[in-house]
Amino acid sequence: MSMLIQHEREKLIEAVKFFAQNTKKLGKTKLFKLLYFLDFTHFRDTGRPVTGLKYFAWPMGPVPTKLFEELERPSTDWEGNCLFKLVATQKGNMLTVNTLSKFDPAHFSKRELRILQELAVQFKDADAEQMVEQTHLENLPWHQVYEVQGRRQEHIPYAMAVRKQEEEALLTLINDRAEMIGALRK
After folding, report:
1. What's the pTM?
2. Which helix (H) or strand (E) holds 129?
3. Going by fewer Cβ within 10 Å, which terminus of the chain is more open, N or C?
């Protein structure tokens, strides 16, 4: 495993622990949406996701499919960190997420920690249905892939986190600088 992938994996485990310690009603659906918002918000701001997960446009919103599959049989690096267990609810069985060890902020930048904190505050009491609604908002990446483009079950590119007007402003800025450099070289 490369150092980058290992670092992203450590961040994933710590992010799950953070959300388990700082939100209520943390099941699989809510967790997936929180990780999606973490990764896509950070990508929008920096051009890099936090966990490196790949998200796909499923009917209930964005799903990191590899993590979805892994939670059926969690790998050994979850041991001592998180406990995933099925709990019977009125709506059927729900996979709950509990933390077994203290969150370690050392793996994260200040920006990443701020985003984690903001998401935990914003969605502290939200349930799975409310989280699904938030990811389905018009013009967000899931909505663009699933509803607008009709690419159900397909990958949601991180680049979609950058809004069109921001993308156009960035391209204008790059072109202006290129022209300025070109003029200086003459």
Report:
1. 0.86
2. helix 128-135
3. C
